[in-house]
Design a protein that fits this description.
Elements: H1 7-18, H2 37-41, H3 50-54, H4 56-65, E1 72-76, H5 80-90, E2 97-100, H6 105-109, E3 111-114, E4 120-123, H7 126-129, E5 134-138, H8 140-144, H9 146-158, E6 187-192, H10 194-203, E7 212-216, E8 220-222, H11 225-241, H12 249-263, E9 268-270, H13 273-283, H14 294-307, H15 310-320, E10 331-332, E11 335-342, E12 351-363, E13 368-370, H16 371-374, H17 380-395, E14 405-411, H18 424-436, E15 440-441, E16 444-446, E17 449-450, E18 456-457, H19 462-474, E19 482-487, H20 498-505, E20 509-514, H21 520-525, H22 529-564
Parallel strand pairs: 1-6, 1-7, 2-5, 5-6, 11-16, 13-14, 16-19, 19-20
Antiparallel strand pairs: 3-4, 8-9, 10-15, 11-12, 12-14, 17-18
Helix pairs in contact: 12-14, 13-14, 17-18, 18-22
């Protein structure tokens, strides 16, 4: 054994450290939120329909589809209203167009009935009514009743209806009318999201036998002057429909920030006509006149947040009562505060939560023993991340024939299954602290994934995680400055709420972004990664010497015993 790192390992560590700037600077308030003021100041009403600006590729496909003999167009869209509004602005007013959110066999294919005079009466369905036109269908009824899809598919393939397609046809005992001469040239547009399209493939693997085109509408649009102009113009058209005054720039900025928060991205906006319409209708309830203000929008967002906060309040209550054990000040070996996102089945929103990770060492072979995985309270992604951390850390001790320690890792007070790799960085720091016996600062909160080269990767739910620290201030559990360590790649995802921004402005929360795990060590341990590795090697060397001395003493005792006895 040696008390220094082997030359090759030392060079690897030094070169890695030299290539990474270990000193990090906390983010400013401006870096933690969105900024739309310059776009709103430069706003100009679009010269063409606003949705054609948001979805130019889809508009191009739809325009060409209407000129082709192709009978079917699949539109992949998360929001029915987005597709409807885009199609309304793309399809010419002169072309008969119907939009059906719900329908059945009778409304599509018609109805056969037997009159009192014994004559058959055929009531046309939408396929006949919109012949030579366009019928836009939500795919859901076809998935609920697959027989409807197979009937529709047959009509599109044949090019005409059969009387047997109509409702009551199976009850008629006489000869059914011949409809083959009535050519059906109705163009069908099916609106579905990705999962619904997958379900259609499961129902009918040969659905592609119908000649079709495909286009998609992104639920998120990039932030740019044209897209902001289009969304603002759409909002103005909605307020006109609702009989309201147009939103001023402050209200529009708040609304755009909400749309960015829904995407969790500073440069992306959720475009959901349903969501925008609902927001304006609800916010108008707080307005005393026909002008929705920034305060009205914030009142709506606060009310909705409170209405969905019961589970979060239970979590906060357990913190106040001390039922969840957290250490938020001082230092501790092998213990670190992580950040997670709680997702509850059937619950409309997610929220962040602080949790404690602890590690304790023992004689072993370098294994990080993941207790959560052992007792089947963690998923495969979590297990994968733990093995990545173990491999990364053990790589720096390849010069040692047998690493003499193992580490027992626990997510404290975790009683339900969890998964994900966002705790990888926290696990690495906890294990390093445990092996080196350097304490971790307890006023720091950590989240981030790792690859096997130590790069810190992006994770999900970053805003909810950071805002869980804000709630610790609001609950009075902490008053001094705290640090949050997060992946640099997630900086673009920061759309933090006003309370968190106020704490950042006051210097109570410092957010440090890092791109490599080595940058976390000076923040959490006040040591460089090189110093941590040297300390672990020194500890291994001391343990080896003690073992050799104990073995030598034992051998001397046995020799002495054999001589004198």
């Amino acid at each position: 054994m040696t008390d220094n790192i082997s030359p090759s390992t030392s060079n690897d560590v030094s070169s890695a450290i030299n290539s990474i700037s270990e000193k990090t600077i906390p983010l400013t308030v401006q870096q933690c939120t969105t900024h739309f003021e310059q776009y709103l100041t430069a706003y100009q009403k679009p010269k063409s329909a606003e949705l054609t600006l948001l979805f130019p590729d889809a508009v191009s496909v739809v325009s060409r589809y209407l000129k082709l003999p192709t009978p079917l167009l699949l539109v992949n869209s998360r929001h029915w209203l987005s597709a409807q509004k885009m199609l309304e602005q793309t399809i010419a007013d002169t072309l008969p167009t119907g939009y059906l959110l719900s329908y059945n066999q009778e409304s599509l294919f018609g109805r056969l009935s037997l009159g009192s005079d014994g004559q058959l009466d055929f009531a046309d369905g939408y396929l006949t009514q919109y012949n030579q036109g366009v019928l836009v269908l939500n795919i859901s009824p076809l998935l609920v009743e697959p027989g409807l899809w197979f009937k529709l598919k047959s009509v599109l393939q044949r090019g005409h209806l059969q009387a047997s397609d109509a409702v009551n046809a199976e009850k008629i005992k006489q000869v059914l009318p011949d409809l083959t001469k009535q050519i059906i040239n109705t163009k069908i547009i099916l609106v579905a999201n990705r999962l619904q399209l997958e379900e259609l493939i499961q129902i009918d693997p040969e659905y592609s036998q119908v000649s079709s085109l495909f286009c998609e509408l992104a639920s998120q649009v990039p932030v740019s002057q044209p897209s902001i102009d289009a969304i603002v113009s759409y909002c103005h058209s909605l307020t006109d429909q609702l009989g309201l005054d147009n939103l001023d720039n402050d209200a529009l900025s708040t609304l755009l920030n909400f749309l960015a928060t829904e995407c969790q991205h500073q440069n992306q906006l959720l475009f959901s006509p349903e969501s925008i319409l609902h927001t304006l209708q609800y916010a108008n309830l707080f307005s005393d006149n026909k002008q929705i203000s920034q305060q009205d929008l914030n009142a709506y967002f606060d009310e909705v947040d409170q209405a969905q906060s019961l589970a979060r309040k239970y979590s906060e209550q357990s913190l106040i009562e001390g039922q969840v054990n957290l250490q938020l000040t001082g230092e501790n070996i092998g213990q670190i505060n992580g950040l997670s996102v709680v997702e509850l089945l059937g619950y409309p929103c997610e929220f962040g939560e602080v949790f404690r990770i602890s590690a304790s060492d023992m004689i072993g072979d370098g294994e990080i023993i993941d207790v959560e995985r052992k007792v089947e309270l963690a998923g495969n992604i979590h297990a994968k991340s733990t093995l990545i951390v173990q491999g990364y850390l053990n790589h720096f001790f390849s010069h040692i024939s047998a690493f003499p320690y193992s580490c027992n890792l626990v997510f404290e007070q975790s009683y339900q299954e969890s998964d994900g790799d966002s705790a990888s960085l926290a696990i690495l720091i906890a294990a390093s602290s445990c092996y080196s016996q350097f304490p971790v600062k307890q006023n720091i909160f950590v989240t981030g994934s790792l690859d096997q080269h130590g790069n810190v990767l992006a994770i999900g739910g970053i805003n909810q995680k950071i805002e869980s620290v804000t709630r610790l201030f609001e609950l009075g559990l902490i008053t001094d400055t705290v640090l949050i360590v997060m992946p640099k790649a997630n900086q673009i995802n920061l759309t933090l709420n006003s309370n968190t921004l106020a704490l950042i402005e006051a210097g109570k929360i410092e957010i440090h972004t890092i791109s490599h795990c080595h940058q976390a060590y000076p923040l959490l341990l006040d040591k460089t990664f090189d110093e941590v590795i040297k300390a672990i090697n020194l500890r291994i060397d001391i343990a080896a010497k003690e073992e050799m001395e104990e073995s030598a003493s034992s051998l001397f005792s046995r020799i002495k015993y054999s001589i004198f006895h």
